[in-house]
Design brief:
elongated
Length: 123
């Protein structure tokens, strides 16, 4: 679609230019430019900026994907981790998690989860 004068609209010209650039440059070109942009952004923005855009991206992803998306990704990650780590690794992280939980929870917490586990076992 052109404007009244038969010329390309700004959007059309941008798409045409973008396609021509993509056709004449390889992945390397985009990687280098992306790296330069990332470095420039890092110099001019602080940690809060990255936290905000991370939250925004996370929310957008959550809004556009269902629970199934996260389940599949979690499964993939778990399978990949299982392939690259042994039993000792899982024992260490389990112990670390147990200690961290013990620091932040009291006796009542453990009684509640123990009761829940017992209820599940009896089903």
């Amino acid at each position: 679609m052109s404007n009244k004068d038969g010329k390309l609209t700004r959007s059309e010209a941008g798409k045409k230019g973008g396609k021509a650039t993509a056709d004449s440059h390889g992945d390397d070109f985009y990687e280098k430019n992306g790296e330069k942009g990332g470095e420039a952004t890092a110099k001019s923005h602080d940690k809060d900026f990255y936290e905000k855009i991370g939250e925004k991206g996370g929310k957008a992803t959550a809004d556009s994907h269902g629970d199934d998306f996260y389940e599949k990704n979690g499964e993939k990650g778990g399978e990949a981790t299982a392939k690259s780590h042994d039993k000792d690794h899982y024992e260490k992280i389990g112990e670390k998690g147990g200690k961290a939980t013990a620091k932040s929870h009291d006796k009542d917490f453990y009684e509640k989860i123990g009761k829940k586990g017992g209820e599940q076992r009896n089903k």
